[in-house]
Amino acid sequence: MVASTQALEFRATQDDESRYAWISQVLSRFGYRQLGRTDKGIVLAYLQRLGGYSRAQVTGLVARWAAAERVNDFAPLFVMNLLCKAVMISG
Fold first, then answer.
1. Is 52 among the domain residues?
2. What separation in angstroms does the CA of 66 have from each of 9, 75, 91?
3. Torsional sign, CA 42, 46, 52, 58
4. Is 7 within a domain?
5. Count of structural domains, the chain
6. What pLDDT, in 10s, does the model give residues 18-67?
């Protein structure tokens, strides 16, 4: 048996940008997009508990993160397409 245990203290940051960055890191680290429904629920509960957000807030923040991820994945293809069109027009 352990003679003593060490207390853990969790403190939410006051800065929204830091919390948003933390949420993004958590979602990326756990591969949120590839998780099944049950595992996604566990990650959402984790974010609620440690982030101090309500379920609705976490759901909205995750949706915003997912939309931003899609935009970031799409952006290089969009830029490449524009460059190809510019080369075709000039060449």
1. yes
2. 30, 14, 38
3. negative
4. no
5. 1
6. 888 888 889 989 999 899 999 999 999 999 998 888 999 999 989 988 88
Residue where the block lists tokens 């979602």:
27
Contacts of 59 (CB under 8 A, 6+ apart): 44
Q: What is the pTM of this model?
A: 0.63
Neighbours of 51 (CB within 10 A): 19
**Higher pLDDT pick, 46 / 70:** 46
CB neighbourhood size of 44 (10 A) = 18
Average pLDDT over residues 67-81: 60
What is the span of the domain harbouring residue 58? 16-90
